[in-house]
Amino acid sequence: MISVHINKSVLAVMFLTLCGTFYGQKDELFIRINQVGYLEDDPKVALIFSNTSLNTEVTLVETENEQIVFQGKPKKIKNKGWGNFRYYYEIDFSEVTQRGRFYFSVENTRSAQFGIGREHSYKNYQEDLLSFMRQQRCGYNPFLDMVCHQKDGRSMYGPMADSTFIDLSGGWHDAGDQLKYLITTSNATAKMLKAYELFPDKFADKVNGLGQEGSNGVPDVLDEAKWGLDWIHKMHSGKDQLFHQVADDRDHIGMKWPDRDSSDYGWGPNSYRVAYFATGEPQGLKEFKSKATGIANIAGRSAAAMAIAARIWKNDLDDPLFAEKCRLAAEQLYKMGKAREGFQQGNSYGAPYRYNEDTWADDMEWAAAELYKNTREEIYLEDAMRYAEMINSDSWMGKTEADHYRYYPFFNIGHFVLYPYVNEDFQAKLAGYYEKGIKACMNTAQGNAFGIGVPFIWCSNNLTVNLFSQVLLYEKMTGNRKYRPFMMLQRDWLFGRNPWGTSMFTRIPEYGEYPESVHTSIWYLTREEVPGGLVDGPVYASVYNSLKGIELKEEDEFAKFQNDYVVYHDDFGDYSTNEPTMDGTADAILMLAYLAEALKE
Ligand SMILES: [Ca+2]
Ligand SMILES: [Ca+2]
Ligand SMILES: [Ca+2]
After folding, report:
1. Distance from the CA of 593 to the center of ligand 2, in angstroms?
2. Closest-lying ligand to the alpha carbon of 358?
3. Is residue 452 a contact partner of residue 492, using CB atoms and an 8 Å limit?
4. Rounded distance from Cα 241 to ligand 1 centre (Å)
5. How far is the CA of 526 from the centre of ligand 3 (A)?
6. What is the C-alpha to C-alpha distance for residues 582 and 585, in angstroms, rounded to an integer?
7. Which residues of 573-598 are buried (b: 16+ CB within 10 A; e: fewer)?
8. Measured in angstroms, how far is the CA atom of residue 182 from the centroid of ligand 1?
């Protein structure tokens, strides 16, 4: 069957080629735009690629009245597009500021629809991302209305006897799997809190603390952050104690309902799961050991989350009890990080994959800056400045390879938090650190037709989101918008201006091309499309070909756009490009909140 199919395709291609040669018929052309859309004054550049040269004008049509609002001749571009296409063109329609819904028309091809203006484009998609976060909840999952993993967990490496029960229920399932990491949860929690602090008028109140329908007087972004905070409080199981991971890759045994988790950590299936204590030493219960030199990465980020929470629950939510609990935890966690500078990585059991974070000064800078904001104690300012210079511009930016999660959390928000409290010279230094990373990414972007500035290592979408955030916060620090066109190209890549013409968020936009067959239990078991999950994203073909256990389950709808450089598959079987991650989604809330409409009371 397969060989017959291939022969037919080959014949079809030969036939089309002959027709093109002898009868002048045009090959297919592909128009790539941001399917969600653009704000009125955004730079707007569509991309067209084809195997034949294009000599006609393209028109932009307003959908409601079928009116042409713009016409222009595409400009040929020389940068590589990676794919199997000979000609790449761009069409700059930044001058169009009319709000509404539009599509491009070129010869007989129509682009996907998109919007201009917040109400026609970004609306309130950050709310979808929050609903995806609720779908990841562990302990009680409101999407499934299901109680799970109540026996998390039994300790290893802790000061207590091994296998001691500790209540670590709660938190979020990390991605398509059901592990829980402080590495990602500390960042997700703190980033949601920052998104709220930066854009407080962008968040609705439609669910209660358990994530069930019905408002509770608390913005849902804070309900979600509190789900993370409550779990971090449990992981911080004593004044000088910290757990960093619950479960390990023994989880990876196929798709399972969270309340019927057949993985077995030595206490039988669907029972207790292992809880790893943060010792600052290498860990691993089988042959694959992590590296570790301390605990400051996870203690620092957890302290940052707690410090921000102390502020918000005191000032905005008028809950002095919870605020005080967070204030105290922030102080203790920060002390622990300072005493044990260095990093603790994720643990693996039977496979070599883990979170290889080895940066920690970024996290301590963030914590110290947030603590200084709360307390104005000089020591925190001194520490934050010292850690800032230590981490400098150290980042994945500009690199073509980096260990998985080495430079986590992918951009250092600590520089932004510290900025208002230092003198002009130091401010210039902090802005310079951001600028160096941005310029390195722009340099990467110059090598391709899409203007995308990230390496296609695992979780490239996560890098793209954080590059956007870094430019946005650079703008907020300096008032300088010179990198805005580049920032918007990164965003546009995530919503369809890429070789595959697909959004990287599940069901966003609902009328567009987006990831459907995602690598999650919930999709596999319920076939329900949960909106708002950011998938891992495109990877180097070399990465894809080297990973274990990947097998596509469907015919590849994007086959003609795959190439020997970078690939993306909307396929349940591809856990390297199509698995939504909890932390990538949480990171993207900041970007989508910025782009969203303010909520009308
Ligand atoms: Ca709420
Ligand atoms: Ca770090
Ligand atoms: Ca799709």
Report:
1. 24
2. 2
3. no
4. 31
5. 17
6. 5
7. ebbbbbbbbbbbbbbbbbbbbbbbee
8. 24
Q: What is the DSSP string of 406-417?
A: TTTTSS-THHHH
431, two tokens: 């802005």
* DSSP3 helix / strand / coil % (the chain, rounded to 5): 40, 15, 45
The answer as to CATH 2.60.40.10 being correct for domain 31-120 is: yes
Using CA atoms, how far apart are residues 367 and 299, in angstroms rounded to an integer?
Answer: 9
The residue whose two tokens read 């990230």 is: 454
389 CA to centre of ligand 2 in angstroms:
14
Q: Amino acid letter at 150?
A: Q
End-to-end C-alpha distance for the chain, whole angstroms: 60
Q: Which sign does the torsion angle of CA 167, 168, 170, 173 carry?
A: negative
pLDDT score of 19: 35
Q: Amino acid identity of 49? A: F
pLDDT in tens, 45-86: 999 999 999 989 999 999 999 999 999 999 999 888 888 899
By percentage, how much of the chain surpasses pLDDT 70?
A: 95
The whole-chain average pLDDT of the chain stands at 94
Q: Is 23 exposed, middle or buried (0-12, 13-18, 19+ CB in 10 A)?
A: exposed
Centroid of ligand 3 to alpha carbon of 381 (angstroms): 48
Backbone angles phi, psi at 547, to 5 degrees: -80, 155
Ligand nearest to C-alpha 211: 1
- Number of Cβ within a 10 Å radius of residue 245: 33
The pLDDT of residue 2: 31
Residue 45 β-bridge partners: 92
Are 250 and 264 in contact by the 8 Å Cβ rule? The answer is yes
- pLDDT score, position 601: 56
Closest by CA to 593, choosing from 228, 224, 307, is 224
Question: Ligand 2 centre and the CA of 159: distance in Å?
Answer: 25
Q: Low-confidence residues of the chain, pLDDT below 70?
A: 1-26, 600-601
Number of alpha carbons in the 13 Å side-chain half-sphere of residue 491? 29
Q: Is 464 in contact with 490 (CB distance < 8 Å)? A: yes
pLDDT of residue 26: 52
| pLDDT for 533 | 98
pLDDT attached to residue 17: 37
DSSP β-bridge partners for residue 264: 269
Sign of the Cα torsion 290, 457, 440, 381 reads negative
* pTM, entire model: 0.94
Supply the pLDDT for residue 1. 26
d(CA 513, ligand 3 centre) in Å: 5
Neighbours of ion ligand 2 (CB under 5 A): 297, 359, 362-363
Distance CA 501, CA 504 (A): 10
Considering every ligand atom, which ligand is closest to the CA of 410?
Answer: 2
In single-letter form, the type of residue at position 110 comes to R
Domain locations in the chain as residue ranges: 31-120
Of all ligands present, the nearest one to the C-alpha of 517 is: 3
